[in-house]
Amino acid sequence: MNLLKRCISVFAVMLAVALVWVNSAEGTQPLRTSSLEHGNRVRTFSYYVPTGHDIRTEAPLVISLHGLGSSGAGQAVLTGAAAVAEQNGFIVAFPNCFPLTGTHPNLPALPGANLQWNIGIDMSLQYRAGVDDVGFISELIDYFAEKYNIDLTRVYVKGMSNGAMLAYRLAIELSDRIAAVAGVTAPMTVNFAEAKPQRPVSVIIMMGDQDPVVPYAGGRVFLHTEATAAFWAAANGIATVPQSVYLPLTAAGDPTLIRRTSYTGGLGGAEVILYTIIGGGHTWPDGPQYAPIAAIGRVSRHINGSRVIWEHFAEHSLGRRAAIMVEAAEAAPFATQEAIRTARARHKAALAAVEDLPDGEGKKALIARLRAVETRFLPALADIADHWGRSSIKMLAGKGIVSGYPDGKFRPEAGITRAEFVAMLTRALELAAKPETAARFKDAAGFGWAKGAIGAAVDAGLVAGMPDGKFTPARQITRAEIAAILARVVERRLVPVPTVKGVEFADAGVIPAWAAAAVRKANTAGLVRGFPDGTFRPGRSVTRAETAAMLHRLVAER
User: Fold this and answer.
1) Phi and psi of 27, rounded to 5°?
2) Could you tell me the pLDDT band of residue 191, with boundaries at 50, 70 and 90?
3) I need a surface site. Which of 61, 331, 335, 357 has the fewest CB within 10 A?
4) C-alpha distance from residue 472 to each of 356, 418, 466, 475 (Å)
5) Positive or negative, the Cα torsion across 479, 483, 484, 488?
């Protein structure tokens, strides 16, 4: 079946789904409905609040995304999630995609095509119209935080088919807000195959190997289901071999068989669980057989999809993720330079995870533990104890941006070479090493230790060589040269910097014409300053302490 026929099958089947989902066994209360405005569009949703919910008590939030051609109310019927929410005390929301009408060049007019999510790939009116579904879901989280006092560390997303595709996208783009996602009857779309989630997110996948609508084996638009699991295992830093078991057959007469493959031991306790429903179709486990088996495949009755997904969700939270990552940072060894680099990476990842948490005593406690870890990175540097630049030097040393000499000294008043400055700057900006770029300089053989940093800075457009084709790495750098480099950092927006009131330097007349504009830009960005007498002294060599102060201002805004 070609792609067009496949899409027609998806649209037609899911439209039929929307038409037949009319009644369901919900919780003890009816669904509520509401709306919010996002991106100049009114976005609607249904939701269920369990009986006895107390606004003073934080409840988890599960967002359940419908498939193509369906609706939030239809998703509630399909999943029976309100009953699970009632039993387990969480709020469940069923948002609606934004309906669009009409046609667009290169998009066939297919049944149900107006009801789908923007999954980040050019196959829908929603994508062409720029419907911001990621922003909508983020704002939906804020809505429930304000109205119902949800636990912001326990927000989860699950989806059916097209909704599952959006769930994976949300795990990538809202990894700072979502603790876990589940995708049912859909692997990931190929447009995210090279994506880099910023945080670990646990992922549950449920997929029938006989799905006639969205193939288990993937295709031009979809990854293979097992490749989807492998993607998330790698994204979560899972290196262990996955373990597979077959689940008990609990429903008499049900010919399906379920294999659970578990990838565990990820960053922050993240896991990936793949439920392969052998003989299963484009259906929700233990949901309705909403269309004939010949059209959509078979429903498995051996597990209840919504209950199993919640059991996994309940094991994960942003707080648990942050605490585990802090523990990993605390346990990192410091025996070798490679170990120290690994320890710094763990510390950085843990700090990002902690920053995702809502403010409170738990967050403060984790930050205090990380500050204690930071002291392990700090070298003694005996010659800065009473120096004016001590705080900047120690902060940058803790981040691995600057370092001392083998004798344990920093030598704050020593000059700094062009190579040394570029090395410090690229570490501050976290630029990837590019030694091949630096190899073009005639004197490249003389600065092997800094070749990667110099190449990175050249690639970023921050530095250049001399007219004679050399880089001259050992020449001491001047204040005017540093101002020019930092001005390029500002121009290229490599870091966010504020605009401050600049000063007119007393020696402005001696600042070289090539550097005058750069000095003004770096000064109004707060990165370079003058001396107490009001001068800038553009030709003066820069000390290591002065460099640390400038770079401290640079990274302080990150």
Assistant:
1) -75, -165
2) very high
3) 335
4) 44, 7, 8, 6
5) positive
Taking only the tens place, the pLDDT of each residue in 56-112 is 899 999 999 999 999 999 999 999 999 999 999 999 999 999 998 776 666 656 667
The DSSP secondary-structure symbol of 476 reads B
Sequence letter at residue 255:
P
Per-residue pLDDT at 17 exceeds 60: no
Residue identified by tokens 């040269």 is 481
From residue 269, how far is each of 317, 324, 326 by CA, in Å?
A: 10, 7, 12
Q: From residue 286, how far is each of 77, 280, 359, 522, 546 by CA, in Å?
A: 12, 11, 39, 63, 67
Side-chain-side CA neighbours of 44 within 13 Å: the count stands at 10
Residue 23: half-sphere exposure toward Cβ, Cα within 13 Å: 0
Tokens of 459: 């690639």
- Cα–Cα distance, 483 to 522 (Å, whole number): 6
Q: Within 13 Å of residue 520, how many CA atoms lie on the same side as its CB?
A: 8
**Side chain identity at residue 1, one-letter code:** M
Q: Cα–Cα distance between 465 and 450 in angstroms, integer?
A: 14
Task: Find the DSSP H helices in 271-399.
Answer: 293-296, 305-313, 318-331, 337-355, 361-374, 390-398
Which residues have a Cβ under 8 Å from the Cβ of 493 and sit 6 or more positions away? Answer: none
* pLDDT on residue 15: 42
Mean pLDDT confidence for 224-243: 96
Q: How many CB atoms lie within 10 A of CB 499?
A: 10
